[in-house]
Every structure is written in C-alpha cells, then in structure tokens.
Amino acid sequence: MSKRPDAAPSTLFDDLREVVTERAVAEQQGPWPLCGNGVILRALLLVHAALGVGLAFTVAPLGAWLVALGGAATVAVPATLAWLLLACAGGRWLRRGSPPMQMAVLAVGGAVVAAAVWALLNRASLAPPAAGGVVAPALAGASLAAMLWSSVRWRERARLPAAAAAHLADLQTRIRPHFLFNTLNTAIALVQHDPRRAEEVLEDLADLFRAALGGLDKITTLADEVELARRYLSIEQLRFGERLQVVWDLDATADKAPLPPLALQPLVENAVRHGIEASDRGGKIEIRSRRRRDRVLLSVTNTVPLNASPKPGHGIGLASVRERMRLLHDLEADVRSGVIEDGRWRVSLSIPAA
User: Fold this and answer.
1) How far apart are CA 272 and CA 303, in angstroms?
2) Are 205 and 239 in contact (CB under 8 A)?
3) Pairing of strands 244-249, 283-292
4) Which residues constitute the domain of residue 326?
5) Residue 276: which of 246, 231, 232, 247 has the closest Cα?
6) How many domains is the chain built from?
C-alpha cells in the first residue's frame, strides 16, 4: 500500500512552471551526455564542418581544399575519438564539477589530445605540417572541444521545454474523465463491502495522478515504471474482471534501466483501450523485459479484437514516449510498434542498461 502524499498536489500550471523554470538538467543524474553513438556522429560532423569552413578561407581551389581537408581530418578524426573516449570515461568525475570547470577540463583535454595525436602522426609523416609546431593543433583541439561541449549543453537544456510539451501531451491523453469517473464509482461501490480495497484503489489512483502531474524531466527506472503500471492495471482489473488477462514476464536484471517517467504506463493504457475495451470477449496483455548484455528490451503486447471496430487513437501517447526516449538516450533508444506474426499488436523498446 502506498504512502499518502504529505502535501496537496500542485495544479497543472504550477507543475509546468516548475518543470520549465527549475535547472534540473544541470543536476541530472542520467547518462553522461558525452557517451553514445549520437554524440560520436555529431562530434565528427562538427569537427569536419569547422575544419572545412576554416580551410575555405585559406585554400581556394576545390581540389586543393579537399586535399587540405583530408590531411586535417587525418589528425582530427583520431583526436576527436580519443577525446570522446577520455571524456566518456571521466564522466562520473566530471559531473561533480560546475559547468565552467567541466568546460575548462574538456577544453584542456582537447588541446592535449590534439597536440599528442598530431605529434605522433607528424613523426610518422602522416600529418600535415603546422605553423608553430603543436601550438596550432592544441588551439584547434581546445576550440573544437569547447564547441562540442557547448552544443551538448545546449541540447541538454532543450530537454526542459520539450519535456513540458510532452507533459501536456501526456495529460491530454492520460487523464481521461471516464477513467477517473469509473475508478471513483468502483471505489464507491467497494466502500460498503470492502473498504480496505476501496482505500487501495484510491491510493493507486492518487499515485497515477501524482506521476502524471510530476516533472517529466526527471529520470526513473524500469522497476518504478513497472510498479506504476501494476497500479494502473489493478484498477482496470476491477473494471474488466476476467476480460482482462495480464501476463508479466520480467527480468530482474533489467530493473535498473533508466527511463523517462510515464514511459510504460501509457503503452499499457493503449493496450487496454484498443485491445481489451474494444473487444466484448476481452483479451490478453503481456509485459516483458529482458537484459541482453548492455541493452534492455521491453515490450507490451496485446491481442487485437477480431470482430470489433477499434477506437481510433491520435498516437499522442506513443509519440510522446518516443520523443522522451530520444531525449534521454539519443540514438541509443529504439522504439518500434506494429502487428507481429500472430496478429497481436506490440510496442517494443530497446534502451541501454544501467
């Protein structure tokens, strides 16, 4: 049984104001932003773009410009990858410092790595000559490291308004009046013969609304999301009875996988709405999680009504989950949905493990 809230829940406007104005990104304890395939891809594109623009001012013919860009990339690519490797490995230590300290350390690291890579390749006659020896590569490395870190910080800050927009979309699809009325009516009916169960239903409802009205810029775990989905399904189980069959197939080693809040519950709600509510005979929902090395696979599968016309949806809930997964895990997140071989509908998530 959950604990009762110590204070009255905030209004929607107070909640959104808090989400947008608080500096949660600076305190975020999620994945270090300099790790991941998306960061590597953007870093290489940024470095090549900066080199290309800089060389365009000094090398006029296109052929000579391409040759110069290739020579510069010989140093820039391994230096960038080495810097990203060191920055990712030192993320646990770097996140303890202030943003200016992080910028300074990463810029100095960029200078040292660029100078070292240029010196090694130049000794092997693989790097182009540089005026002033290692000074030019060091300055370029520091500048590009600062630019990359600034772009990463900008992207992290962009998560706040995006989370607020996703919050509104979730509220529009999740807090449906008929679900609230059905739950309250169920609790009223239980008060007479099972007051303990009625109290549990109301507490489950309070937890769901508290999660829906909470900040979506925070990070939770798969275990917490599963608990919230269980509370939602326990309420719906009273409504549908034997029509709703739920199968949990969970891997305990995947429980700590980081997720944005309300990533699982809307998927389960869609399964109930389109797979159970739309069918006179009901159906089955299967929630499954598996850990595969450094990945966690999560799926929600529901039967599809055969002779019933499913209620059309707007896709807002799934789109919101997909967007917040992308903001949290970048290119490391994969969200797919569609009909599988046996005719059931499945939404699958693949994310990095904790």
Assistant:
1) 10
2) no
3) parallel
4) 159-352
5) 246
6) 2
Closest C-alpha to 289, from 317, 265, 322, 253? 253
297 falls within a domain: yes
CA–CA separation, 221 vs 211, rounded Å?
A: 13
- pLDDT tens by residue, 204-221: 888 877 776 665 557 889
Domain boundary among 136, 157, 178: 157
Antiparallel, parallel or unpaired: β 220-221 and 345-352: unpaired
Are both 165 and 294 inside the same structural domain?
Answer: yes
Per-residue pLDDT of 25-48, as tens digits, reads 334 445 677 887 788 888 888 888
The pTM score is 0.60
Same domain, 113 and 225: no
Residue 10 domain flag = no
Q: List helix spans (H) across the chain.
A: 12-21, 37-56, 62-89, 91-94, 99-123, 135-157, 159-174, 177-193, 195-212, 222-240, 265-271, 316-329
Q: What are phi and psi of 127, to 5 degrees?
A: -115, 145
